[in-house]
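Reading group handout, session on sequence-to-structure problems. Before we discuss, look at one worked example. The prompt was deliberately terse, the way you'd type it at a terminal:

> structure Small RNA 2'-O-methyltransferase

The input record follows.
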Amino acid sequence: MLLTISTTYQPATELGYLLHKNPTRLQTFDLNFGQAHVFYPEASEQRCMAALLLDVDAVQLVRGKGNARSSLDQYVNDRPYVASSFLSVALADVFGTALNGRCKQRPELVVTPLPLQAQIAVIPCPEGEEWLHRLFEPLGYSVEAVQHPLDELHPEWGMSPYFTLTLRAECRLSELLTHLYVLIPVLDNSKHYWIGDDEVNKLLTRGQGWLEKHPERRRIAYNYLRHKKSLTRDALSRLVPEEEAPEATDEASELEVVDEQTGEEGASTEAQSATAEAARVVQEKKEKRRSLHEQRLQAALEVVRQRGAKRVLDLGCGEGRLLRMLLQEKSIEHILGLDVSYRALELAQKRLHLDRMPARQRERLTLVHGALTYRDQRLEGYDAACVIEVIEHMDQPRLRAFERVLFEFAHPETVVITTPNAEYNVKFETLDAGTFRHQDHRFEWTREQFQIWSRQLAERFGYQVQFAPIGPEDAEVGAPSQMGIFSRHQSLTQ
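And the output record:
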């Protein structure tokens, strides 16, 4: 299998420094599935091309043991010729320094967007050319895909699922290599090594900064992890905000249906129709899940409005979705957002465009880094506090400290707490029994458990509490989320 990377940046031979491979030498590297050769078909000041050629030992793939062995049981197969996970491994082994964005000789080039072209001689894509465009165009590449016939001498046999893929963009070399490293295995249905938790970490590490924004991120994760639902749920729950995790689990399940129906060439009209129906169901579920967190935020905002709160806390503010809604309420004079994650606060600043916010509006908002299990005088003197889907991320023994911090020391007049309803988990078909909706949840309470805890809390600290469901309510298991409204004065009218 062959990959070429070329540039017209001048002097173009600087590509050799970035790849850490001398254009005047042929270099060979031993891999556990064969050999990788690096050479330069062209190396001038105007244009430079580096080639990575893999010589895969097909016999060793069948006879070998350990990680080098795939599920192949025939000596004749497409592994030596078609881009696959072998190429992704070779990129990391041979171009690892460039992949990680390091170059001592030319450090300025590492962060410089260059005119780059990458061409993969043969890559599989049974889903067709459109899927290649959907994978690479959102990342800024122009995509050229040439499909190959099954046999040039027998055109009546039709077209093969193999393409020559050419990508062009002005970007950093490390970005190009990273995108290839992740997306080539996405197109490979015969990944040659064991898929486990380590692969989730690899995907999240290499996908940082771009995968979470990719419109096909769920399908990418699902394919990269070889259609393993538990790993896909894990990856998506860590990649996207917590409130979207149930959406991710449902979509991973639906993708299995879509794959099964589109995996065979020449699928029937009935299968294509079923695929369209499955895609429609996925989209409907996506919209339903997406609106759930909006319902939580809206419910909290309505309580704040009804109480006429002038100073409001958003505890566990995350990336600032509720903060944005609170800022739109002109009656609110000051808002404080607190989160234990410094990274989340940075994202909140970007989401809210604090750098461009008018001075008077900016004065209404304070973002602070802190934990809800330690007394913090910055939280005192506020009228209302919103704690939206936060308590389930705490270890239960630490809840006692949280209770004192919020209800005894901060002591706002109104507190709004929402948390998942564990009884509703049975409605998520792909959520295994006994597991939580998000990997960071320490517990999930039933309605009775939440109400017992809330009433005891209210009694200890001199509050009254009322409860309300959030989301579509089922007659047997209730709503997906539940809300407790604590008040030091008269309770809300039902």
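Points for discussion. First: Confidence is low (pLDDT under 50) at residues 65-75, 242-272, 286-290. Second: The first helix runs from residue 14 to 19.
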